[in-house]
Amino acid sequence: MHFDIWTTGLATLAVDCVVLGVFEKGELNEEARTVDAASGGRLTVLMGRGDFSGKSGETLLLTDLPGVKASRVLLTGLGAKKNFSRKTYRRALSAAISAVARTRITSVAIALARPGAKELDDYYLGRAAVEITASALYQVNDLKSGKKPKTSALATVLTGPVRKAGATAARRGLVHGTAVANAMRVQRDLANLPANVCTPTYLAERARAMAKGVASLKVLVLDDAALRREKMGCFLAVAQGSDEPAKFIVIEHRHSKSAPTVALVGKGITFDTGGISLKDPGAMDEMKFDMSGAAAVMGLLGLAAELRLPLNIVGLLAASENMPNGRAIKPGDIVTSAAGLTVEILNTDAEGRLVLCDALHYARRFNPAAVIDIATLTGACVIALGAHHTGVMANDDALAREIVAAGVRADDRAWQLPVTEEYGEQLKSNFADFANIGGREAGAITAAAYLAKFTQGMKWAHLDIAGTAYLGGAHKGSTGRPTALLADFLIHRAGR
User: Fold this and answer.
1) Which sequence positions are flagged as catalytic?
2) Is there a smaller number of Cβ atoms within 10 Å at the N or the C end of the chain?
């Protein structure tokens, strides 16, 4: 798909469709007023009839408006003008693209009202156009045997209006938005696959395929024997209950020796039964999404290579199944981590922190300026924050603030939760250095407190994406979060 900007002459643009914004009570935005004038006031007449309310997300397709070169005009509701924001802009654009996708329109010019420059500057206008379009047009990679749904005919999207002074920034946003959309598609495609297809071995093969022929990328895959040499006892304990071999996948984007390093650690449990601490059957099928963190990391390494980010970025994907066979770990078992610390496993369904703790220890060898783990870790985080915010916990408040700010800019929001020493005391064990769970209270935070024990001396943040990485029920599927957040974090780090 081709993306570009438009600056002036909306009524004369050679596109199939112009997308206009209308506020509630029929108030036309500035760009809509220019089209209205070119058409001899046809839109004003339409608004006077009350045929279009302007409610957020509402659309109405008009054809053959006089004085307008485009053969169609799509009116899109922006909601109440006093409440218009970046969020309502994104909702309106998503609704418009979805409406266009149901037609045979091949090219559009977006002319929605823009929030203030602080909310949506030229750079983010460009990024939003690509990211929202890609998200609205995304089709799940289903394995149905019937005829596949038709793909959208849309091939060209122009976004604006952009002043000449902002053209360079807007086009940079288009380039970055394309990379973000590609990374999100990687995450969503991988996470949506069934667990009998997307195994740890499959993830390793996909990583190798992604790096093939890409100069900046290097992939190393550690098998069972290599994991034993690394003494990753916690990771191996989770993997021992499955017939599928575990894989520890290292993807490096190398820029230069002098560039700072960011380590991204992804939980890659390709299916989570809970192990001996078996989950309830209801919605267990959704546990194929338990590798969303690893999928996000893979997408982000592809983005780093695509944008040639001037950072060294290391992706560590801890990929395994969590199954309850005769060799599986049991509640009360004690295992030794790669860091040499012993862990009493009180609940085998708290397996994500076991694979992550060994991955975090492995990250030390890269001397990272920052290390971030991404994991669908706890149901407790879903209870605390729902599906709206990713939970952020860190041993460095500046890093946490940097991540939260990236989420605001990318409209992929996160919220910081505390992870002070009191929470770590809930992990006390009579038989080992500590346990892998700390009781019902503050479950998301005690999970982070467990991981924090392996991060001394590193600037570390933990992203709990259990509520944000996927949707369940009738809308079941990967959301692609928090890829946009972390992409924004990396792009801003590179800019520094």
Assistant:
1) 279, 353
2) C
